Amino acid sequence: MSLLRKLDRFSSAGPGSRSASNSVEALSNHGPPSRASATSGMEPEASTRFLSGSDPSDSESNHELPGLMQETAYGPVRVIDTRLEPSHRYGSVLVQSALQVQARTMSMLALDAELCDLDFSKALFLDTETTGLSGGTGTLPFLVGLAWFEDRSLRVHQLFLDHPAHEVSLLHCLLEKLRSCSCIITYNGKSFDWPLLRTRFVMNRIAVVKVPPHLDLLHTGRRVFKRRLGRVRLIDMETHVLGKVREDDVDGSEIPQIYNDFLHEGTTSPLHAVIEHNSNDLIAMAALLARLADHLQVPQWEDDPRDHLGYAQVAERAGKQDTAQLFACASAAGSEPSCVVDAHLLVARTARRSGDRDLEESSLRSALEAGDEARHPFVHLALAKCYEHRFRNYEQALYHAAFTGSAEGAHSSIRRRKRLERKIARCVQPKAVELPLR
């Protein structure tokens, strides 16, 4: 094959390709494609505007975009920079209280020892808006939102792509901030935002510094609030945990099309809502961080007992038995039977680990009295184990073992009862009496 033929194949869109869906990816890596290779399947006017080499930043309507274009060593990038006053509240939470978060507290909540010695005042909040919601190499982050604290004020720093060809400069600006932060804080960032950004670094041949520790508030929030909220999207956290309701917020599923309209038609008005949406996500993360840490210090009487149980379960997993027991006792004061049962079972487990068999027994009996009949077999099983192994009271253990079938299975339940019957028989068997010799 001749060299000219090879070059022609390289520059063509290829069989079965759709330039309208791939144009963003092509521009982000190779610059604007030729008009001949990218206009099929598009409206003539839109394709001419986007693909003739014109930059959307030159359009007449582009002056409506917020922020300023900044020149970097790698090209231009639009920056929207705002600061929140130290007195700013997001819902019921004072945002600057996130500065008081203790590393050990978040390490326990996140079940991540890597966070134990970090300075959270130097944390970097990160959130992206992208051209697609499924990730992958064809997805472009056109808005990267960053936030950090400066002099007790939260600084919101958003990097926006006026044109996909400016992606390299955006990524280098992000890289600069990653070098100076103690950790990154995201919401679902471990599954979406960071893998996407890492892919973009690789595709643009940019060497990434060692990834700083990563706190994903989705996992932390889910452990604490899942029982009460069910769904744990950030918007659910805002409404039911932070007491904040967004007004006229753009739906996340609409964001890719809004950016696509901007690229092809120069429509800027809807982008204001996207930028505000991204900014609110960053502020919400700072507020949620503060809320999670603050309410772990001591049970708050106004908190839902299901949240107390969530904190107790996290503390138990982290090996903080005293904290787990404290929050479980607070949860047991609630009225939802299943929550009360789980709280008493947790107290019983912590009591067993500390060797307090009397507290273990009383907690299990309280769980049995909570009224959740569906959980009774599990409580009977715990009581059977408690009486057999801690109290050596085999009669009581046998009584409770009669109700454990659905908790441990019929076969295991039968084996347990037979074992207990043998132990009882050995205890009541009369001892041989030695007669004196005549």
Label this structure with key terms.
438 residues, alpha+beta, single chain, two-stranded antiparallel sheet, elongated
How would you characterize this protein structure?
The strands form 2 sheets. The protein has a 7-stranded mixed β-sheet, sandwiched between helices. It contains 19 helices and 9 strands. The longest helix is centred in the middle third of the chain and has 26 residues. Helix 8 packs across helix 11, helix 9 crosses helix 11 and helix 12 packs antiparallel against helix 13. The chain is elongated, with a radius of gyration of 30 Å. The N terminus is likely disordered. Strand 1 and strand 2 form a beta hairpin. By secondary structure, the protein is an alpha+beta fold. Helix content is 52%, strand content 11%. The protein starts with a helix and ends in a 10-residue tail after the last helix.
Compact overview of the structure:
The protein is α+β, with helices and mostly antiparallel strands and about 450 residues long. Helices cover about 50% and strands about 10% of the residues. Helix 8 packs across helix 11 (about 270-295) and helix 16 packs antiparallel against helix 17 (about 395-400).
* Largest sheet properties: 7 strands, mixed
Main sheet: strand order: 1-2-7-6-5-8-9
Radius of gyration over all CA atoms, rounded: 30 Å
What count of helical segments does DSSP give? 19
H/E element order: HHHHEEEEHEEEHEHEHHHHHHHHHHHH
How much strand content do the residues show?
Answer: 5-15%
The count of β-strands is 9
